[in-house]
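Thread title: Can someone regenerate the structure for this chain?

I was given the following input by a collaborator and told the matching structure tokens would be attached. They weren't. Posting the sequence so someone can regenerate them.
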Amino acid sequence: STLQNLRALGLSEPPRWVIVASLTQMVLLDRSKWNQKRLLRFDLPEIFGRRDITTLQAMAALLHRDLICPPDSLSLLDTLDENSHRHAFAVSEDLKYALRESIELIGNEAVYYLREWRKKGVFSGEEKLDAGQLTEECLRFMYRLLFLFYIEARPELGYAPMSLDAYRTGYSLESLRELEMTSLTTEESQNGVYIHESLNLLFKLIYEGFSPAQKGLQFGEAPQHDIFEMKALKSHLFDPHRTPLLNRVKFCNSVLQQVIR
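Best answer:
Regenerated them for you:
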């Protein structure tokens, strides 16, 4: 009967929606999404096991005939889909402008640091900066942050050990985001490099990985304290050799606070 339901989507006048039900799950298929292999699956043991009235109400609303096939208006799912696309576009636009502003902040700070602190000629001479290379490295820096924000917000991916205090409070980007609202009232706090050093340590951790066994062998015994493990991510994104210009720069707290915000 399941096969017959799926074949119904290929009829000359196919139904818009098909519900496939079993003792353990219900699946809602949308003809317009079928070729993209997208569907809504309801895990009944999980849903009923929660004993949460709002979860049951959400399932009932998403599967109710009057909301899937209303006689004179858009279905609830079409409305949700439309709002999702509109929201995603707005987020993309906001992110685009925020990303551009952050790249400008990082690039300008890199030029300032190389000129004022390292006393290097940035507009002329043998070490003249390549604007294209600097832009690419700043973009790479920002994508590192975006990648980290994403994997830390998705613990189900199984990479960033956000459930462990040792990582979450000691290394994570999330812990640095908590400094976003901190007022940098002194010159020392504004011009310090705590956020910079923390990010460099995190980037190195991601690229090289960390193994508790290796840590234990280094000191001749297995570690006894709360630790975590991360597999090395040998990608171009976190390869330090891909950011030779920014490797020579130390970004101050005030700039990186704006970037993280």
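The CA atoms of residues 103 and 138 lie 6 Å apart.
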